[in-house]
Protein 1
Amino acid sequence: MVALSIYMLVFRITHIVSGIFWVGSAFFVSVFLEPTIEAVGPAGGPVMSHVMEKRKAGVIITGIAAFTAIGGLFLYWRDWHSMYASFGDWIGSAFGGVLTVGAVCAIIAFFVGSGGIPPTINKMNTLGKEMATSGGPPAPE
């Protein structure tokens, strides 16, 4: 029983703490950082370049999201196997149904974010370097 308690404790802490950081970083970027960078115009380019290239914010946020998803999947698996005989019984229960909807939404968010953020960051970095070397806006294409 102690091993199960330690298992649950480790994965709950991993899931909850990394989830707080994932949501908090997404909130900070979308509510504060992006609007500020947009408001200051071209002067914001070096800041975003530093945040994304040097500080690796995109990679770190993706890693935090992975920890959240992995911790959640371990908790989901443990609850499903310890409480119900079949997967149908699990998702048919109110508790299992709610956790299943939450898990599916989180996994979709993880894949959309990890699939969409890195290419966007790479494009932004390429455009920023192009603008810095040319001294003006990038080519229209």
Note: Residues 2-130 form one domain.
Protein 2
Amino acid sequence: MTSWWFPVALSLAGWCACARIPAWEGFAGVQTRGFTPQELAWDAYFSGEEPSACKILWPHDGTIEPDPNASIVHFRGVETAHLVENGRLLRAWKVPFPVEEHTSDAVDYQTPRVLECLGYDPMGRLVAYDRVDYTPWPPLVTDPGDLVGSLWITYYYLSVEMDWEGPREIPIYDKQCRLMAHVPYKFATDVCIEGSGRLFEGTVINYAGRCDCSIPCPLGGRICYLEVTDPGASWGLGSRRNALVPLRSVAVDNRVIPHGATLYMPEWDGVNIPLIDGIGGFVHDGCFRADDVGGAIKGDHFDFFSGTRAMWLLLERRFRTRSRFTVYMDAGRCRYLAPSAG
């Protein structure tokens, strides 16, 4: 027969075991607390590094920065710290905060920058180091350039055979009158006006000169073509076999504007160009380049290369054909489009 006190003893033993304080809580030096998300994030970020660290969070290494004067540095476990730019001391901290910001005065915007962070222990020994190399972004040049005058606009584009219906029965030829393809009549007449086109199978053809073996063009004359083999000229070629660039290239009269000149038109500056046919989708800065000429482009007239027919029809709603624009040449803000800059 089991004694009455045995179950009571088991119950008391279980209660004592459950209520016992963990052994590590009994040590006076141990303190327990929760960690904030920020502390956990920093711990994860630096988990693989030494206890002492200085980390340049901004700018990033190998980038082009619009504000080269701003920097953000994270410190941990250092007594003093120095921020050095191209060998020049920018800032010295005594017991820095975990995150410090610094704003300096740039001497110029052309010199590449080397930014270094050096952290020292209480004995003055270097215990943490970081470095980033970056390049300042040149400030916007506001000078519009030399005034050319008021010019009126037309548009041209890369004609695409797939956009035109009809039997492929019209022959087109190269300049030696060798057959290149048979195409629909509407495409044949369109491409001889636009100057460049894409055949059904994807081949890009471009104006090569006048010849006697082709059908008459609506604007007069007979046009023969060459096949564009340069993969960088998928939109056709300009007047000196240079690649045309949608929404940037214009055809001009070279007696008014020389080939390759960069142009600025303030009326286009800030215009939102919608994304269509794989081009556009940005805000225009008003910068163009004189890449082409045309038989009908004379005097105060320029031809805007819209890239596609759909883009032309859309831009017509903003600036109709024969609208006039103020044109400047060699604007500093458009220097990045100069041939030598490419």
Note: The chain has four helices and 22 strands.
